[in-house]
Specification:
Blueprint: E1 4-8, H1 12-24, E2 29-33, H2 45-49, H3 65-68, E3 71-74, E4 79-83, E5 88-91, E6 94-97, E7 100-103, E8 107-109, E9 123-124, H4 129-142, E10 146-150, H5 154-165, E11 169-174, H6 186-198, E12 202-205, E13 209-214, E14 220-225, E15 230-232, E16 235-238, E17 242-244, E18 273-275, H7 286-300, E19 314-319, E20 322-327, E21 338-344, E22 347-354, E23 357-364, H8 372-379, H9 384-387, H10 397-400
Parallel strand pairs: 1-2, 1-7, 2-3, 7-18, 9-16, 10-11, 10-16, 11-12
Antiparallel strand pairs: 4-5, 5-6, 8-17, 13-14, 14-15, 19-20, 20-23, 21-22, 22-23
Helix pairs in contact: 1-7
Length: about 425
Amino acid sequence: MGEKYVIVGAGAAGIAAAARIRLYNKDATVIMMSIDEYSHSRCMLHKFLGGERTEEELSFTEPDFFEKNEIYWGKAQTALGLDTGKKQIKMENGYQPYDKLLIATGAVFGIPPINHFRTASNVYGFRDLTDAQKIDAAVREKNAKHVFIVGSGLVGLDVACGLMERGVKVTIAEMAPRVMPLQTDDTAAKAYQERFEARGARFLLGIGASDSIVNSRNEITAVTLSNGETVECDFVVCAAGVRPNIAWLEGSGLAVDRGVTVDEYMRTSAPDVYAAGDVTGLSGIWPNAMDMGRIAASNMCGAAAAYTDRYCMKNTSNFFGLHMLTIGDINAQIEGADIYVKESRGCYKKAVVKDGVLKAILIQGDISHTGHWQYLIKSGINISGILTRKDVFDITYGDYFGLDDMGEYQYTI
């Protein structure tokens, strides 16, 4: 029997790593463990919450992925600790030894330090399938009619969509003055807000929760706002930030910062221990997590590979049929930057250019044929010459193929 590869976490990074390990090593024992019983895409959790998909239909792997690749999957298991000296993981039901280990435990939601929020029985997050299942049960079993949501980012609006599909009234509190504050500007935010409000959602912008009221069953029944208003609710969902899931590694001796510290080969500070995905704190987007998983697995199998594409300032969204793409910090106050805006029927575009280099772009409406923007931004390609002959929003890959970061062609065709 070959080496024993153990992966903790069955998300994007973990699944990608398992497939890569099996590709390189046909004889290895590959073991995955996760708190969930289904592999699932976090991006689709709102469809489960809204009743559009079952747990099985959230999977992003082939139905026979684990069987075909001879991967043992220990479901509904929580990792409690790590002993790098003995090379074993402490699980709820015992210890799991390893030869090579990949930590891919993702991230967990945070709960703000508001009175009762961290102790009440009806406060939920919306990060994993287990969170969505708890919310689903709360709606079904308690016949919830009104939910208070903290945060109007992508996660908060996903929760709101899922609940509204089931006829639940939602109130969404956001400390910022607009919805999706990190991904939108005022114009793009207004378009989304209007669509949500037209379907019954209530937004409390620039307002936070300051206190809450609980009943004899330790359930929050109302939230008190910073402006003194009280909003009644059946339960609360916290959707205002996440952090790498590293609490279980306390005492392991692994170097950690915001997340597990890794080098360019995804190696941690302990021999034969690697980390990938959200748990590293490097990126919170799906493609990057999969890349990290594949890179980590390659190195675990002895095929040296470096993780170099660390650009992660990209978000896409689709609420009520309105698509949006944001790359870079669209709200950055960059001195001397040129701001380009273009509005047409059903489409809004905004670009930020500094010294001939595109720094950020927002496209709301038709986001087809926009894959080249991330490459253009992260590569820092100078487009000054292109802008003298065409609109920034009309730039295609063909316009800058072969240009270096000074706007000069590296070669001629």
